[in-house]
Input
Amino acid sequence: MKAWFCAAYGPPEVLALREVEKPVPKAGEILVRVLATTVNSGDVRVRAARVPKGMRLAVRLALGWSRPRQPILGTELAGIVEAVGEPVTEFRPGDEVFAFPGVKMGCHAEYRIVKEDERIFLKPAALSFAQAASISFGGCTALHFIRKANLAGGEKILVIGASGAVGSAIVQIARHVGAEVTGVTSGPNADLVRSLGASRVIDYRNEDFKAERESYHVIAECTGEHTFSDCRHVLKPGGRFLGIAAGLPDMVAMLWSKALYGKRIIAGPAEESAELVQQIATWAETGIFKPVIDRSFPFQAMREAHDYVDRGRKRGSVVVEVASLP
Ligand SMILES: NC(=O)c1ccc[n+]([C@@H]2O[C@H](COP(=O)([O-])OP(=O)(O)OC[C@H]3O[C@@H](n4cnc5c(N)ncnc54)[C@H](OP(=O)(O)O)[C@@H]3O)[C@@H](O)[C@H]2O)c1
Output
């Protein structure tokens, strides 16, 4: 089978398409023929070893010092079960599935083994393979942080980076829980962000949300460009700052932000649980959560897909079609 390898940290050119042995499922494993995957902000961060401020040492220790320990990137997939290892009973060859291996990655390949107790589910019939492949990374991150913030109906939330994979999911989930959403994005994305549920959009090229005072109960910062101290005056007393792309300074300030300012910082890696994926899939199936797909690339164009995501301008998800989609 073919798989894209990242054998060194660097620009998209470090990626190489290699022929590797097709895996055979062992006990409790499911072999999935991958039809669709995504290239997301996590993939390009790993490939480029581009980490939030102050996190270089910790991230290199976790991911691999001079190159990624897992050379095949890709956090999410959708495809068809090819074979199962005994005693798997939940899935059969031919089943249409999607999975979210998350930080374990390995989805930028024609086949991937998924363990039965990893996050693999039957694909909701209402979703295409491209949609099913694209709901988990942004959706689960968004739901994790919204739950941590205890966002309630009637509260006001500011979503900075509202057109990205995580931001577009936060806008939708926040709206679903009854919050009043303001999205920060550039002008061309304003209609998209409004269509997802924002009642107000701030075009950051013309307007500075930091000119406001005590306006929001929650700020979801999805760009890494603004710290808690940049934004805390914009939060109401008792407000919560979701540092989704936070660096070390905000991680450390989590320890005293509540005692010092009466406002909390919530940061760190999002949980990757089956329950989160299931909730997002249910919402996607019932139309509460709309997968936002910017564009798709063929499998051979993986480097181009990375280059596109590297620019930081994508809207929602970028899909890679590993095989021709039905
Ligand atoms: N904590 C965790 O576990 C976790 C999990 C997932 C992701 N993350 C991090 O969260 C961040 C967002 O991820 P993502 O996947 O949503 O990224 P993404 O999809 O690549 O975000 C791209 C979007 O960001 C917008 N943007 C860029 N600069 C902006 C600015 N100054 N103000 C407002 N919007 C801006 C762009 O809109 P314009 O073109 O309009 O500028 C674009 O639509 C990344 O840093 C990622 O590493 C963290």
